[in-house]
Specification:
Elements (H helix, E strand, L loop, with lengths): L2 E9 L3 E7 L5 E8 L3 E2 L5 E2 L2 H17 L3 E10 L4 E4 L18 H10 L2 H8 L9 H11 L1 H4 L4 E4 H10 L3 E2 L1 H4 L6 E2 L4 E2 L1 H5 L8 E2 L5 E6 L2 E6 L2 E2 H12 L5 E5 L3 E5 L8 H5 L2 E5 L5 E7 L1 H16 L13 H9 L15 H6 L13 H24 L6 E6 L5 H10 L4 E4 L4 H9 L5
Parallel strand pairs: 1-6, 6-14, 6-15, 9-12, 16-20, 20-21
Antiparallel strand pairs: 1-2, 2-3, 4-5, 7-8, 10-11, 13-14, 16-17, 17-19, 18-19
Length: 442
C-alpha cells in the first residue's frame, strides 16, 4: 500500500529543498540542491528559473512514478521580494531579477518626487530598500524596460509562480504581498495608491487566503495544491498554530528576521531607519519585523578570515567555543571589536560599533578573530530583536534556522538575552512545515 504524502518545496536563495511528509506531517524524505545563478540581460546575477522549474517538475514526476508514494498535497515556501513576470502564453517574459540588483538612484529620486519617501515608507511599512521593495521592481521594469513590461500579463510572487506551474491559476496571497514589497497600504488594507496610479495593479493577480487550495490533476488524480507562502511567514505560521502564549520568532539564515506578531505598535520613523518593517500573517494581521544580513555577513567575513589565517573554507566548523575567550567577552575584560561590511549602516549599527572598521588581522589566531566576529553578529542580533520586541511584554523566544548550530552564537545569545526564555529548534522544517500546515490535511 503506497504511503500518502505531501510534497513541499522550500526554495531559498542558496539551497533549494524538497520534502515529503506523511499525513501526520512527519518527515518522510528530504533532498537539497544548489542551483548556481545565471545572468539577466544586464549581466547581473539572477535565479536560474528554467533550471529551478525543471527540478521542481522532475521531483514531482519521481513521486508520481514511485510505487512507494501516493501524492495527496503539494505546496511551496520560497524567499520573498521576487516576481516572476508571466506573459500571456504562461511563460516567463523576463528573468527572475535578483533583489540585490542595484536600483537606479535617479529612478528612486523620481519615484519619491511623486510619492514622498517618509510618507510612503510609513504607509507601506517598509524602509527604502531598492529592489528589495519588490513593487519597485515592477516600477523599474515599466519605466526602464517598457518593451518588456508590455509583454507582462501577470506578475506573480515567487511562491505563487511555483504553484502556477502546476495549477495554471494566477493568484496572490497576504504573506507575499506583505513582505517589504512597498505595494500594500497597511492602514487601508489595500494596494497603495501609487500602485494604482502607475497601473501596476492591472498585472497583479487576484488575492486569495494563504490557506486557499486549488485541486489539480497530478499523477493522474486530484491533488490539493496550495498557493505558496513567503518563507519567513511560513516559519512563523508553524509557531502560531502550535502556540497559545505570545512569542517572538528569530529565524536565522542568509537573513536573520525577527518576527513579533504580538504587538499593535505602528512603525516609527526610527524603526524604519533601522530596517524594521511590517509583514502580514496568513490571516492578514500585521507583524512587526526587524532583519539584517546575518548569514551573508558571516560568509563574507569567514572568507576574509580564511585568507588572513590561511585556513580552508570549512575550517570555522571545527572551532569549538573557547570558554576563556567567552568569559572575557561576557565580563568585558577584553576590548571587543567588529564592524560589518555588507549590512545596512543603520543608526543602531553605527551606535553599536562607533569605530567604523574592523581589523581581524590584529588577532593572534583564527579562533580569536572568529569569536569576535560571532560576538559582533550576536550584538546585532540582540539589538535587532529588541527593535522587533518594541514595547511588548513577550518573554518567550523561538530561534530557528542555520545559526542554531553555531555554538558560539547560541552561547552568547543566551548571555545577552538571559531575561528571556529561549527555545532553539532545528532549521530545515520550519518553513516547509508551515507550508504543509497551510494545506490543512486531515
Amino acid at each position: 500500500m503506497p504511503l500518502e504524502v505531501i510534497a513541499i518545496f522550500d526554495i531559498g536563495k542558496t539551497n533549494k529543498k524538497f520534502f515529503l511528509f506523511d499525513k501526520t506531517l512527519q518527515e518522510v524524505k528530504q533532498e537539497y540542491i544548489n542551483i548556481p545563478p545565471i545572468e539577466d540581460e544586464d549581466g547581473d546575477p539572477c535565479e536560474d528559473l528554467p533550471t529551478l522549474t525543471a527540478w521542481v517538475r522532475k521531483k514531482i514526476n519521481e513521486v508520481c512514478a514511485s510505487s512507494a508514494y501516493h501524492l495527496i498535497g503539494l505546496n511551496f515556501s520560497t524567499y520573498g521580494a521576487s516576481f516572476v513576470n508571466v506573459g500571456d502564453n504562461g511563460e516567463p517574459a523576463t528573468p527572475l531579477y535578483n533583489y540585490l540588483k542595484d536600483f537606479p538612484a535617479d529612478l528612486q529620486e523620481a519615484f519619491f518626487a511623486s510619492y514622498p519617501e517618509e510618507t510612503n515608507n510609513q504607509e507601506t511599512a517598509s524602509p527604502t530598500l531598492g529592489m528589495l521593495n519588490s513593487g519597485l521592481q515592477l516600477y523599474w521594469l515599466k519605466k526602464r524596460k517598457p518593451e518588456l513590461f508590455a509583454r507582462v500579463h501577470r506578475s506573480l510572487h515567487l511562491p505563487q509562480y511555483m504553484s502556477f506551474i502546476f495549477t495554471g491559476k494566477y493568484v496572490s496571497e497576504p504573506t507575499s504581498i506583505g513582505c517589504h514589497t512597498r505595494l500594500w497600504d497597511f492602514a487601508r488594507q489595500d494596494y497603495h495608491a501609487w500602485v494604482k496610479n502607475e497601473g501596476i495593479d492591472k498585472i497583479l493577480a487576484e488575492i486569495v487566503p494563504t490557506t486557499h487550495i486549488i485541486p489539480t490533476k497530478i499523477c493522474g488524480h486530484i491533488v490539493n495544491v496550495g498557493v505558496g507562502i513567503h518563507d519567513s511567514s511560513s516559519a512563523l505560521a508553524a509557531y502560531l498554530v502550535k502556540n497559545d502564549e505570545p512569542f517572538i520568532l528569530i529565524s536565522t539564515g542568509t537573513w536573520s528576521i525577527t518576527l513579533n506578531p504580538f504587538t499593535e505598535e505602528i512603525l516609527s520613523l526610527s524603526d524604519l531607519q533601522n530596517d524594521c518593517l511590517n509583514y502580514l500573517t496568513i490571516h492578514g494581521k500585521s507583524v512587526k519585523a526587524s532583519r539584517f544580513f546575518l548569514g551573508h555577513e558571516f560568509d563574507h567575513q569567514i572568507k576574509r578570515l580564511n585568507q588572513l589565517f590561511n585556513k580552508p573554507d570549512k575550517y570555522y566548523k571545527t572551532v569549538a567555543p573557547d570558554e576563556t575567550i567567552l568569559e572575557q567577552i561576557k565580563e568585558g575584560r577584553i576590548k571587543n571589536s567588529f564592524y560589518p561590511d555588507t549590512i545596512l549602516r543603520s543608526p543602531f549599527i553605527t551606535a553599536l560599533f562607533p569605530e567604523n572598521e574592523w581589523k581581524p588581522e590584529t588577532y593572534g589566531s583564527f579562533e580569536e578573530a572568529y569569536h569576535q566576529l560571532v560576538w559582533g553578529l550576536t550584538r546585532i542580533q540582540v539589538d535587532s530583536f529588541l527593535l522587533a520586541k518594541g514595547n511588548s511584554n513577550v518573554k518567550k523566544v523561538y530561534i530557528d534556522g542555520g545559526f542554531v548550530h553555531n555554538e558560539v552564537f547560541i552561547n552568547l545569545l543566551r548571555h545577552f538575552l538571559s531575561d528571556y526564555s529561549l527555545e532553539f529548534s532545528d532549521v530545515p522544517l520550519g518553513s516547509a512545515y508551515g507550508a504543509a500546515l497551510m494545506l490543512n490535511v486531515e
